[in-house]
Amino acid sequence: MTNPLSPILSVSRGAAWRLPMIGLTACLALSACAPGSGLPPLPQTTVSNYTLGTDEEVRVVIFGQTQLTGRFTINDRGTISIPLLGDVPAKGKTTDQLAQLIASDLEARKLLNNPSVTVEITKYRPVFILGEVIKPGQYPYEPGMTALTLAAVAGGFTYRAETQDFSILRKENGHTIEGKAPRGADIQPGDVVTVFERYF
User: pLDDT tens digits, the chain, 200 residues: what are they?
Assistant: First the structure.
């Protein structure tokens, strides 16, 4: 005798097999459409290769030469003005490279023999945060700042914010790069951080 429920049971079994597949497809679709999913991971910048930029302030210490030691701001031409040396190119150099350049200039001009020069950053470029935070805008950079601490400084997240991964726009070696970074990623001076809006 033919069971009248057989077609229904057959359809139900088929639907039961299809439901996990539909769920998996939906999850994959949502993952592919997640905020920032098209961005590559942001390459990490180490402290040792950080290069100086406009409006940053450096302290130049020349051992035994108090008249040459001081704080100098990098102007829009990318230089600092040091007594006896005049304009010295600073933008795009690391602190070690700038110290070596100053020492070489002092020696080449026969102002000092084998000078000892150190350079440290006393004021960094600001950082910027956009998107789903309470107070987007420009903020002073602090060493050790992460994407999450910057969001906290900006008043915290809005209720629509994606709080796990952010976009970071960074200038490195004269090129602008953008990548996706986790909330604990280190921020560099001049970075532009975007907090995404979540889709659901």
Answer: 555 545 544 445 545 445 445 444 444 444 455 666 678 778 776 555 788 999 999 999 999 888 889 999 999 999 999 988 999 999 999 999 999 999 999 999 999 999 999 999 999 999 999 999 999 999 999 989 999 999 999 999 999 999 999 999 998 777 889 999 999 999 999 999 999 998 76
Residues across the chain: 200
| Tokens matching residue 187 | 């921020």
- In this structure, the answer to whether residues 186 and 156 fall within a common structural domain is yes
In a domain, 45, yes or no: no
Q: CATH number, domain at 117? A: 3.30.1950.10
